Amino acid sequence: MPATIVVGTQWGDEGKGKFTDLVAKEMSLVVRYQGGHNAGHTIVVEGKSFALQLIPSGVLYAHITPVIGNGVVVDPQVLLAEMHKLDGQGVDVSRLRVSGNAHLILPYHRDLDVVFERHLGKNKLGTTKRGIGPAYADKAARVGLRVQDLFDEKIFRAKLDVALRQTGSLLSKVYNRLPPTAEDICELYLGECAPTLEPHVTDTVNLVHEALEAGQHVLFEGAQATFLDLDHGTYPFVTSSNPTAGGACIGAGVGPRHIDRVIGIAKAYTTRVGSGPFPTELFDEVGNHLVDVGREYGTNTGRRRRTGWFDAVMLRHAVRLNSLSDVAITKLDILDDLDEVKVCVAYEIDGVRHESMPYHQSDLHQAVPIYETLPGWHTPLSDISRRDQLPAEASDYLTFVQDQMGVPVSLVGVGPGRAQYLPFSEVG
């Protein structure tokens, strides 16, 4: 019953879509297990770009069933728009299956996201304001609506009435914002979205287990990344779910016994969107170079990403949190023109060297990176497909990173295209 998890190891935007797509060709199901449409990724196939937000990467393969699991929060308008766009690009979306237990993002969740973030002022979290956090909050408070509720008008209206009494009062009396009406929501969600979505909704837990019991390969795909995890990330500058590997079990309805490989995805450098600590962040010409050459702007939001050197302290912690079996390094080619490259191997905090992540947030905010500096390679890597074609300096860099992490670097990305990668070390 072989199952694989692909998880981001930094603060997201590591290029998970490319390697999920690569690994997915051996799979029967690709299951998205958490998050919402706040995390996008782009896959380039034969020069054609596909920007995905909710639909799993496996949709680009005709033999794969893409699945949105129970741990995801779904805005049906966004999902249907994404399906329509992919259909227009010649992608068959009829195979998509959506968990009836996934929670819905409703219009008032987006409203709450906007006013909450505005209210925080300089302490804002940097959310995408798409309603993901408030939808998860309602889920935890047990006043959320689920996808399955779309197909029972009586239940939908009853639950919506309870939710609107709470959120409507909050929006109008506290934030002076007119809440959406129940009738407007019902017209859109029940009248427009439900009929189109219904053929795709099913018991995805049963679907996944039937595949596993038949010996088929299943891939679990997370959004965001390890250090945006609600429990293990740089709180409060985190997402509202659990992108770490353990989240796959909850968000897809499987036990850990089924998982036999966990692939971590990491950039050859580090990026972050929004607020929060970032020990290796660069504010110089190298940082600008990484932004410009790496096209470091958000797929969904267009926001400029913060950039910094590779942080091996983070990666060692990500290996522990996720039980990583191996790591795929992306965007190595972005470092091609640099005279030297650096790797953070430890932090200095109050004059003391730390080789593991500090548990207290105040320590992380004041952590000073301790670097090892390696020579650059000044050689374009985009056409390389074998390890023995790598310049010695690039190979040495990957070997150093591998040794620092303590797990193999299995694959290396050298460009945005589906075929622009090479194997580096064997796994197992």
Provide a brief overview of the structure.
By secondary structure, the chain is α/β, with parallel strands linked by helices. The chain has helices spanning 16-24, 76-88, 107-120, 132-141, 153-174, 182-197, 204-213, 246-252, 285-294, 312-322, 361-365, 392-405; strands at 3-8, 29-32, 41-45, 48-52, 65-68, 73-74, 97-99, 103-104, 201-202, 218-221, 259-267, 270-272, 306-308, 310-311, 326-330, 340-349, 352-354, 368-375, 409-413, 421-423.
Kindly describe this structure.
By secondary structure, this protein is an alpha/beta fold. 33% of the residues lie in helices and 21% in strands.
Tell me the layout of helices and strands.
Elements: E1 3-8, H1 16-24, E2 29-32, E3 41-45, E4 48-52, E5 65-68, E6 73-74, H2 76-88, E7 97-99, E8 103-104, H3 107-120, H4 132-141, H5 153-174, H6 182-197, E9 201-202, H7 204-213, E10 218-221, H8 246-252, E11 259-267, E12 270-272, H9 285-294, E13 306-308, E14 310-311, H10 312-322, E15 326-330, E16 340-349, E17 352-354, H11 361-365, E18 368-375, H12 392-405, E19 409-413, E20 421-423
Parallel strand pairs: 1-10, 1-11, 2-5, 2-10, 5-7, 6-8, 7-9, 11-15, 14-16, 15-19
Antiparallel strand pairs: 3-4, 12-13, 16-17, 16-18, 19-20
Helix pairs in contact: 3-4, 3-5
State the main characteristics.
428 residues, alpha/beta, globular, single chain, ten-stranded mixed beta sheet, four-stranded mixed beta sheet
Strand order across the largest sheet: 9-7-5-2-10-1-11-15-19-20
Terminal Cα span: 17 Å
Largest sheet: 10 strands, mixed
- Percentage of residues in strands: 15-25%
Structure classification:
alpha/beta
Count of DSSP E strands?
Answer: 20
What is the 3D shape? Answer: globular
The poorly predicted ranges are none
Q: How much is the radius of gyration in Å?
A: 22 Å
Mean of residue pLDDT values: 91
Count of alpha/pi helices:
12
Please bin the fraction of helical residues. 25-40%
